[in-house]
Amino acid sequence: MHLRTLTLQAIGPFAGRHTVDFDALGQAGLFLLEGPTGSGKSTLIDAIVFALYGKVASSEASEDRLRSAYAADDTESMVDLVFEVPSGIYRVRRTPAYQRAKRRGSGTTTANASVKAWRLPAGADLDPATLDSVGVPLGNRLDEVGAELEKAVGLSRTQFVQTIVLPQGEFAHFLRAKPEERAKLLQKIFGTEVYERLAQRLAELRRESDRATAAARAALSSGTSQLVGAARLSDDEASDVRAAIDTAVAGSTGLVAAVRAVVGERTDALDAWAAGARAAAVAADAVRRAARTHLDESTATHALLRRRDGLRAERAALDAAADMNAEAVLQLTAARAAQAVRPLLLGAERAATTLDAARKTVTAAVDGAPADLAAPPDGVDLRSHVQAVGRSAAEEAGALARLVDVEAGLEARRRAVRRTRHAVDDLDAAIAADDQWLAGRPPARATLAAELEAARTLASVTGERESALTTAIEIVTAHEALALAERSLAEATAARTAAGAAALAALGTERDLRAARVADLAGELASRLDDGAACPVCGSTEHPAKAVLGADHVSAEQVEQAEAERVTAEKALHAAAERCSVLDERAGALRARVGGGSAQDATERCDRARSALAQAQAAQADVARLVPALDAFDVQTRTREAERAAAVARLAGERATLEVTLLDLDAAEAEVVAGRAGHPTVAARHSELLERVASSTTVLDALADQDAALDELGRRQAELAVGLDEHGFRSADEARDAAVDAAVLAELDRVVTAYATRLDRATAGLAEPAVAALADDLVVDLDAATTAEAAARAEAERTAGEARVAEERSAAVAVAGDGVVASATALADALGTAGPVSRLADLTGGGGGDNARNLSLATFVLMRRFEDVVAAANERLLVMSDGRFELVRSDEKEDVRARNTGLAMRVIDHRTEHARDPRTLSGGETFYVSLCLALGMADVVTAEAGGIDLGTLFVDEGFGSLDPHTLDAVLTELGRLRAGGRVVGVVSHVEALKQSIADRIEIRPTAEGPSTLTVRAG
């Protein structure tokens, strides 16, 4: 895998947009990633891992730190990565979830994480400005894009971090870890949990098979007890059965067949006993059925004899009451005939009453009518006279009905005329007011338009005045910064002068002390000479004239102290000189920025520019106010003009309406006067005519009711005559005498009906074939038949109970026997399964007699992978250590409590040929040994992943602990990686690496806080 370009924006300490061209950095094969601590070196690595996998490099870190604290609210946080693998070139653009300001209102909202990926064509231009228009999209869902990228890279995130980014601290921990900890890490990296899970699953299967075997044994024992209880065996028989089954279980083969034989012996015996009991029960039930049949026949015959005797007695009593029944029949017939004629009698009486009332109503109606209506002329009957008078009054009233409404609406018409006159006057006044108001609108509009045009002219220069104010503010700020820089430069110059004097004094002090010490070296040597001791200069043992040590002798410690003070003073002088140079450059730049004007001039220009801008901004506000004001002015004018036109139109309509209304009112008043005909009002005349119509109608209705009542009476009397003749009555009085009350009639009917029913029932009963066939001397012994049936039934129930008990016991034994056989089958299956599972569990779990070292399958696989890692690491370690160190795997336990995992490690020191604990290595040795382990791990993980080509590699900090020779060796080994086609990025602060590696990514924090990124390549 080769990284091509990386673009990030608003990520970590990077507030802006930065692009890293890995193609340019990869030309040399080795580049440096350097910058102060906390400036953002790790952020670049996190950005790469986040782009590919949606998570940062460290599993303990959160993606929340990706959002830059320095980014503006409207700046999107994103990472855009282009990389190449054997299957092609891919691009992925990913944004993290972060909090951003709401576009509407206050507060924040969550910007959700997103991702997009493309497959780019070969030879595509990787310029970020043109990438959006090329490539085949791979999707925009987090899960599907993640799966596609992991498939393309060929590594999981854990494998990627362990092979692309090599964190020294973690692999130093791996080097010094206990075997148990090393096993956990290797298991995680190589994914050997499957072997651990296999061993655990086999152990679980062994426990399950043991539980199944125990359960099968318990089930067989329980089933045997159920078989003994169901068969109700004696203690000796039960012991024999249990012993036979135990013997079958103890045998190696034939368990199921032996148990089936024991069960079959018991079930066969019980089946034979049940068959005999069933036969006895069948015979007894046949005897019971015969006795029951005889009892039923005797009971039926006895009941027929008793019924015949009762029917004969009832027939004799009915014959004795025959005369009384005939008299009741005659009385009932006459009463029923009277009951049928009674409605006709009542109808004739009601018709006579109605006729009398109708005659009285006619007399009352005639008396209440007007005199001319009640007294018809000679030769004219009352009905015809009333009809003529009523008809004439109705016609006259109908003709006046319309004039009544006209008369009632005269006042409303007069009010309408008055309202219309007032409306005409009001409209005349309104039109005159509108004309006066509209005459003053054109001059006012011209004034408002002129004011708007002036404001627009002034507002158009707002941008120019804003730019002028910005420039003026920058000049004022530059003047202030210049004054501050000049003061700082003066202070730094004074400090440099003082530091120079101090350094010169320190140099003189050191020089004087060194000269004094050299001058007094003879005295110092003489002070160390003892008599008889050889002189270190001439070798003589005699010292006749030793030099004398001066009182102001200078010691070596004093010289060293003076030298240290001189070095410190020179460093202070160098720092002060560098600060003066920086401040002088800054002051020069500021002087060029401010030009020749003074700070006072700049301030005055800034004030004038601010005042001018305020005027332009005020003009903008005036424009914003005057534009809607002018529009509103025009709207008001148009509205008033429309109102005047509408008023003119309404005035014409109201005048036409007034003329029509006046003509209509005059015609209506003349018609009403003519319709009164001597009455006060038309309504009074109309009411009088309606009363005459009502009186005539009342008289005519009364005459019609009288005629109808007379016809009804004749019809009712005719119906009564026919009814009396049909029912045999000579007169109405005879029918009234034959009538009785309803209760008496019902009692007569009940007595007659009951006699006929009893007579029919007795006659029919005696005529039945079964009764008629009985002999007069027949006798039935019912008690003897009942006793015989009871005895047969008791015997049948006893034999049936014995048969049922036998069958139930036989069935229970059969069920229990099936359960015993099933339990034996389950036990045989469990015993057959438990053996292989137990042997496999012992083998994979590290137990069993064949596994002398007690190594589990998972540990054995990890041990072989670990040997591959150690072998790959030694290829580089022998070079980096000049052949001194070599790693070996050890089977020794590191302490008595440790498990024998086979993952212990020793370092062979070929200078002494002794094995050392890795924890005894020095800091630098630990670094490059750990680095070799990391690179070896990367090689093995790569091979495990299918031989994936890791074209880009990052090596983290740790080079500062190496001596120059070892550092050269490490760089040589990294050069081998580069020669193998890899691009190696080194993350370090070491000055020697900065001097030896030209291509680099420089990260620098700015004074404002965010970091900047610069790529130097070529």
Automatic annotation (TrEMBL):
The chain positions of domain Rad50/SbcC-type AAA read 6-209
Key word Transferase present: no
Q: Which residues form a coiled coil?
A: 559-619
Under the heading InterPro entries, the entry gives: P-loop_NTPase, Rad50/SbcC_AAA
Please name the GO terms that the record assigns under molecular function.
ATP hydrolysis activity
Entry-linked Pfam families: AAA_23, SbcC_Walker_B
Q: List the taxonomic lineage.
A: Bacteria, Bacillati, Actinomycetota, Actinomycetes, Micrococcales
- Report the protein name in the record: Nuclease SbcCD subunit C
Q: Which organism is it from?
A: Cellulomonas terrae
Subunit note: Heterodimer of SbcC and SbcD.
Establish whether keyword 4Fe-4S is in the entry: no
